[in-house]
Design brief:
alpha/beta, 240 residues, Rossmann fold
């Protein structure tokens, strides 16, 4: 029986395989296995392909990707404020209310509803940021004068805001449970569909546990944006 010469002489070419007494009639087999596979290994190997960022494996920049964000129609062309799709959807009907009330004289841009405990901290911070952005704000700390009736002044303030915002904090949740003044303000604003909740230091889940009606309203949260960015979005929302 003829013996293969590949272990000694190798089959690194077709002529070497043809000269081998054992393999000269079975060149086709050398493509699939045995020692004849040396040459085919070198020709059939190809480097693995890698997906580059430009072909879709990296950061996306299309309309549904991470590198872009929706821009609401009321946002200025040169604005750098970034919105999520949910925020645009939530704020659009509020903006429509603002536009419908544009011709009403002597309106305040915003009525700020807050818990008494927050008047010198989070509520004042939001008020100051809004005022610095050119937004006129009804704020009990400056608009309820000494000696005046608190409820009456709140009624007057509630009569003419373009937008009502409620600063939802742990303190406000406690006040709402106790059915205090903040609860009455919320009822008036909810009745006119003018309310934007601003959740700060708590969650929408906690809000829904206390007030399912208010918790059903989407708004803004300082867990997603800083207070300064929240104020910038509100300033754009009421700008005419």
């Amino acid at each position: 029986m003829a013996r293969c010469t590949a272990p000694v002489e190798g089959h690194r070419s077709s002529s070497a395989a043809a000269a081998c007494p054992a393999c000269r009639g079975s060149r086709g087999r050398s493509r699939g296995g045995g020692y004849g596979g040396y040459s085919s290994y070198g020709s059939s190997y190809s480097s693995p392909s890698y997906t580059s960022a430009s072909s879709g494996g990296g950061v996306r920049s299309n309309s549904n990707g991470y590198g872009s964000s929706p821009k609401p129609r009321w946002s200025r062309a040169n604005s750098t404020v970034v919105y999520t799709s949910e925020q645009v959807r939530t704020l659009t009907p509020v903006r429509e209310n603002v536009e419908r009330r544009a011709s009403v004289p002597e309106l305040r841009d915003v009525f700020l509803c807050h818990a008494w405990d927050d008047r010198r901290e989070a509520a004042k911070e939001l008020h100051d940021l809004l005022e610095a952005a050119g937004v006129s704000v009804w704020f009990s700390e400056k608009d309820v004068l000494l000696g005046s009736t608190l409820l009456r002044e709140i009624d007057k303030g509630l009569a003419k805001p373009r937008v009502g915002i409620v600063l939802v904090t742990p303190s406000l949740l406690r006040r709402v449970q106790g059915e205090g003044i903040a609860d009455k303000e919320l009822s008036a604003l909810l009745a006119r569909d003018l309310l934007v909740p601003i959740v700060h230091g708590t969650t929408y889940e906690a809000l829904r546990d206390v007030s399912p009606l208010l918790g059903s309203r989407s708004g803004l949260s300082t867990a997603e944006d800083t207070m300064a960015i929240v104020a910038a979005k509100l300033a754009e929302l009421v700008a005419l």
